[in-house]
Amino acid sequence: DAKTTQPPSMDCAEGRAANLPCNHSTISGNEYVYWYRQIHSQGPQYIIHGLKNNETNEMASLIITEDRKSSTLILPHATLRDTAVYYCIVRVSGYGQNFVFGPGTRLSVLP
Amino acid sequence: EPEVTQTPSHQVTQMGQEVILRCVPISNHLYFYWYRQILGQKVEFLVSFYNNEISEKSEIFDDQFSVERPDGSNFTLKIRSTKLEDSAMYFCASSGQHYGYTFGSGTRLTVV
Predict the structure, then answer these.
(1) pLDDT grade, residue B101 (50/70/90)?
(2) B83 to chain A, closest Cα gap in Å
(3) Which one of A38, A46, A103 has the shortest CB-CB distance to B100?
(4) Residues of B with CB under 8 A from a CB of A
(5) pLDDT value at residue B2
């Protein structure tokens, strides 16, 4: 699986958009970009994933650059409950493929 | 929304004892996983399980570990003789579609 690089920490004001970057310059054509988050010591929570098109769901938006070497997770209106560690993971889709979690980005949403 | 359920939420055991961590995956999922997270460290893959057999395992998953799906709903992780360094959060996950896994809320294992 391709390696990803994320900033170790970020702050965001409550109510503002949180933009979390991820570099994955060695991504291959069949690898998806997945985002998970972990709130405190809970189990990781799936947020969103994409291959090359931008994606949006009820939690977030995922913007993938045209060359697919980087992406940005956008939380449009961050709340205090969005304070968590966010993981960007690149891997092929399909059953049985395990996820390799890096250190992620610790997002602190400030009141 | 379907959930992965793990029990117990916290288990304390003496070094050398056997422990069994239990998980109920989402009912129509076919792949099951165990991950662990030592306090302050990364989430680490242990093992994946499909069609009643291990499909992949990490170096962490040595002979002290085993997994089992004893019936149609439960998925268990057994540690035969616990060591202090086995103290961690253990997360079960299951997957169905390609959009990723659903993780349980974890079992905190404390070995004393």
Answers:
(1) confident
(2) 21
(3) A46
(4) 4, 30-31, 33, 35, 37, 42-45, 48, 50, 55-56, 89, 91, 93, 95, 98-106, 108
(5) 83
Return the higher-pLDDT residue of A92 and B7.
B7
CB contact A103 to B (< 8 Å): yes
Q: Hey, are the CB atoms on A43 and B91 less than 8 Å from each other?
A: yes
* Amino acid sitting at position A38: Q
How would you write chain A as a 3-class SS string?
Answer: CCCCECCCEEEEECCCCEEEEEECCCCCCCEEEEEEEECCCCCCEEEEEECCCCEECCCCEEEECCCCCEEEEEECCCCHHHCEEEEEEEEECCCCCCCCCCCCEEEEEEC
Q: Give the model confidence (pLDDT) of B31-74 as tens digits.
A: 999 999 999 999 999 999 998 999 999 999 999 999 999 887 89
Question: A49 near A62, Cβ under 8 Å?
Answer: yes
